Protein backbone atom coordinates (compact mmCIF):
# COMPACT_ATOMS: atom_id res chain seq x y z
CA UNK A 1 0.00 0.00 0.00
CA UNK A 2 2.80 2.27 0.74
CA UNK A 3 4.01 1.65 -2.67
CA UNK A 4 0.70 2.50 -4.11
CA UNK A 5 0.56 5.59 -1.95
CA UNK A 6 4.04 6.62 -3.06
CA UNK A 7 3.19 6.01 -6.68
CA UNK A 8 -0.04 7.99 -6.27
CA UNK A 9 1.85 10.84 -4.64
CA UNK A 10 4.35 10.70 -7.48
CA UNK A 11 1.48 10.78 -9.95
CA UNK A 12 -0.12 13.73 -8.11
CA UNK A 13 3.22 15.56 -8.12
CA UNK A 14 3.62 14.91 -11.87
CA UNK A 15 0.05 16.02 -12.51
CA UNK A 16 0.60 19.17 -10.40
CA UNK A 17 3.73 19.90 -12.45
CA UNK A 18 1.68 19.38 -15.60
CA UNK A 19 -1.00 21.75 -14.29
CA UNK A 20 1.73 24.29 -13.44
CA UNK A 21 3.28 23.93 -16.89
CA UNK A 22 -0.14 24.18 -18.51
CA UNK A 23 -0.97 27.31 -16.46
CA UNK A 24 2.40 28.85 -17.38
CA UNK A 25 1.83 27.95 -21.03
CA UNK A 26 -1.69 29.43 -20.97
CA UNK A 27 -0.35 32.59 -19.27
CA UNK A 28 2.45 32.81 -21.85
CA UNK A 29 -0.05 32.42 -24.69
CA UNK A 30 -2.27 35.10 -23.13
CA UNK A 31 0.70 37.46 -22.90
CA UNK A 32 1.66 36.72 -26.48
CA UNK A 33 -1.94 37.17 -27.63
CA UNK A 34 -2.13 40.46 -25.76
CA UNK A 35 1.17 41.58 -27.34
CA UNK A 36 -0.11 40.57 -30.79
CA UNK A 37 -3.38 42.46 -30.22
CA UNK A 38 -1.46 45.55 -29.05
CA UNK A 39 0.77 45.30 -32.13
CA UNK A 40 -2.29 44.94 -34.34
CA UNK A 41 -3.93 47.95 -32.67
CA UNK A 42 -0.76 49.99 -33.16
CA UNK A 43 -0.64 48.90 -36.80
CA UNK A 44 -4.29 49.89 -37.25
CA UNK A 45 -3.63 53.28 -35.64
CA UNK A 46 -0.53 53.81 -37.78
CA UNK A 47 -2.42 52.75 -40.90
CA UNK A 48 -5.32 55.04 -39.99
CA UNK A 49 -2.91 57.95 -39.43
CA UNK A 50 -1.11 57.22 -42.69
CA UNK A 51 -4.39 57.01 -44.61
CA UNK A 52 -5.46 60.33 -43.08
CA UNK A 53 -2.15 61.85 -44.15
CA UNK A 54 -2.58 60.37 -47.63
CA UNK A 55 -6.05 61.92 -47.90
CA UNK A 56 -4.71 65.30 -46.75
CA UNK A 57 -1.82 65.13 -49.21
CA UNK A 58 -4.15 64.11 -52.04
CA UNK A 59 -6.50 66.98 -51.25
CA UNK A 60 -3.53 69.39 -51.12
CA UNK A 61 -2.30 68.00 -54.45
CA UNK A 62 -5.79 68.43 -55.90
CA UNK A 63 -5.90 72.03 -54.70
CA UNK A 64 -2.39 72.62 -56.03
CA UNK A 65 -3.41 71.14 -59.38
CA UNK A 66 -6.50 73.38 -59.53
CA UNK A 67 -4.39 76.41 -58.63
CA UNK A 68 -1.87 75.44 -61.29
CA UNK A 69 -4.65 75.09 -63.87
CA UNK A 70 -6.01 78.51 -62.90
CA UNK A 71 -2.52 79.99 -63.02
CA UNK A 72 -1.83 78.47 -66.44
CA UNK A 73 -5.14 79.74 -67.81
CA UNK A 74 -4.37 83.16 -66.33
CA UNK A 75 -0.89 83.10 -67.91
CA UNK A 76 -2.40 82.10 -71.27
CA UNK A 77 -5.07 84.82 -71.03
CA UNK A 78 -2.41 87.36 -70.08
CA UNK A 79 -0.24 86.24 -72.98
CA UNK A 80 -3.13 86.56 -75.42
CA UNK A 81 -4.06 89.95 -73.99
CA UNK A 82 -0.41 91.07 -74.07
CA UNK A 83 -0.10 90.04 -77.71
CA UNK A 84 -3.30 91.90 -78.58
CA UNK A 85 -2.12 94.98 -76.71
CA UNK A 86 1.28 94.80 -78.41
CA UNK A 87 -0.48 94.70 -81.79
CA UNK A 88 -2.59 97.68 -80.75
CA UNK A 89 0.53 99.55 -79.63
CA UNK A 90 2.24 98.77 -82.95
CA UNK A 91 -0.81 100.00 -84.86
CA UNK A 92 -0.90 103.16 -82.76
CA UNK A 93 2.84 103.67 -83.28
CA UNK A 94 2.35 103.31 -87.05
CA UNK A 95 -0.43 105.88 -86.98
CA UNK A 96 1.62 108.20 -84.78
CA UNK A 97 4.55 107.88 -87.17
CA UNK A 98 2.30 108.64 -90.13
CA UNK A 99 0.78 111.65 -88.41
CA UNK A 100 4.17 112.98 -87.35
CA UNK A 101 5.52 112.62 -90.88
CA UNK A 102 2.39 114.17 -92.34
CA UNK A 103 2.38 116.96 -89.78
CA UNK A 104 5.90 118.09 -90.61
CA UNK A 105 5.55 117.59 -94.36
CA UNK A 106 5.55 121.15 -95.74
CA UNK A 107 4.13 120.33 -99.17
CA UNK A 108 0.54 119.09 -98.62
CA UNK A 109 -2.41 121.35 -98.87
CA UNK A 110 -4.39 121.74 -95.60
CA UNK A 111 -7.51 120.35 -97.28
CA UNK A 112 -5.78 117.22 -98.55
CA UNK A 113 -4.07 116.83 -95.18
CA UNK A 114 -7.46 116.98 -93.44
CA UNK A 115 -8.89 114.41 -95.86
CA UNK A 116 -5.87 112.13 -95.35
CA UNK A 117 -6.20 112.42 -91.60
CA UNK A 118 -9.91 111.66 -91.79
CA UNK A 119 -9.22 108.52 -93.82
CA UNK A 120 -6.49 107.37 -91.45
CA UNK A 121 -8.51 107.99 -88.32
CA UNK A 122 -11.47 105.94 -89.52
CA UNK A 123 -12.03 102.55 -87.89
CA UNK A 124 -10.68 99.63 -89.90
CA UNK A 125 -12.43 96.27 -89.70
CA UNK A 126 -9.44 94.12 -90.64
CA UNK A 127 -5.99 94.33 -92.19
CA UNK A 128 -7.38 93.21 -95.54
CA UNK A 129 -9.72 96.21 -95.34
CA UNK A 130 -6.81 98.67 -95.51
CA UNK A 131 -6.41 98.47 -99.29
CA UNK A 132 -10.14 98.95 -99.91
CA UNK A 133 -10.50 102.21 -98.02
CA UNK A 134 -14.11 103.27 -98.19
CA UNK A 135 -14.73 106.56 -96.50
CA UNK A 136 -16.89 106.40 -93.45
CA UNK A 137 -18.67 109.36 -91.97
CA UNK A 138 -16.21 111.77 -90.39
CA UNK A 139 -15.55 111.60 -86.69
CA UNK A 140 -16.83 115.14 -86.21
CA UNK A 141 -19.92 116.99 -87.41
CA UNK A 142 -18.24 118.58 -90.45
CA UNK A 143 -20.12 117.87 -93.68
CA UNK A 144 -17.05 117.41 -95.83
CA UNK A 145 -13.34 116.91 -95.31
CA UNK A 146 -12.84 120.34 -96.87
CA UNK A 147 -14.64 121.89 -93.89
CA UNK A 148 -12.28 120.28 -91.37
CA UNK A 149 -9.74 122.54 -89.78
CA UNK A 150 -6.13 121.49 -89.74
CA UNK A 151 -4.83 120.87 -86.29
CA UNK A 152 -2.82 123.90 -85.29
CA UNK A 153 0.58 123.13 -83.81
CA UNK A 154 1.63 125.57 -81.12
CA UNK A 155 5.19 126.64 -81.71
CA UNK A 156 6.09 126.52 -78.04
CA UNK A 157 5.03 122.87 -77.61
CA UNK A 158 7.76 120.25 -77.48
CA UNK A 159 7.74 117.06 -79.52
CA UNK A 160 7.18 115.00 -76.39
CA UNK A 161 4.11 117.02 -75.44
CA UNK A 162 2.71 116.73 -78.96
CA UNK A 163 3.42 113.02 -79.02
CA UNK A 164 1.79 112.55 -75.61
CA UNK A 165 -1.28 114.54 -76.73
CA UNK A 166 -1.60 112.53 -79.96
CA UNK A 167 -1.15 109.26 -78.10
CA UNK A 168 -3.78 110.27 -75.54
CA UNK A 169 -6.20 111.17 -78.36
CA UNK A 170 -5.48 107.87 -80.12
CA UNK A 171 -6.14 105.92 -76.91
CA UNK A 172 -9.43 107.79 -76.39
CA UNK A 173 -10.48 107.00 -79.96
CA UNK A 174 -9.58 103.32 -79.47
CA UNK A 175 -11.51 103.15 -76.19
CA UNK A 176 -14.55 104.79 -77.75
CA UNK A 177 -14.43 102.21 -80.57
CA UNK A 178 -14.27 99.36 -78.05
CA UNK A 179 -17.23 100.81 -76.17
CA UNK A 180 -19.49 100.74 -79.21
CA UNK A 181 -18.34 97.37 -80.56
Characterize the structure shown.
Residues 36-67 form a coiled coil. Keywords: Coiled coil. The N and C termini lie far apart (128 Å). This protein is an all-alpha fold. α1 runs antiparallel to α2. It is built from three helices and no strands. It has helices spanning 2-103, 110-121, 159-180. The longest helix is centred in the first third of the chain and has 102 residues, at 2-103. The mean pLDDT is 79.
What's the short version?
By secondary structure, this protein is an all-alpha fold. It is 75% helix and 0% strand.
Main β-sheet description:
none
What is the share of helical residues?
over 70%
Rg: 48 Å
End-to-end separation: 128 Å
- What share of residues are in beta strands? under 5%
Global outline: rod-shaped
Q: Spell out the helices and strands N to C.
A: HHH
Could you tell me the mean pLDDT? 79
- Tally of strands: 0
Uncertain runs: none
Structural class per helix/strand content?
mainly alpha
Helix and strand layout, with pairings?
Layout: H1 2-103, H2 110-121, H3 159-180
Helix pairs in contact: 1-2
Task: Name the features.
0% strand, 181 residues, mainly alpha, 3 helices
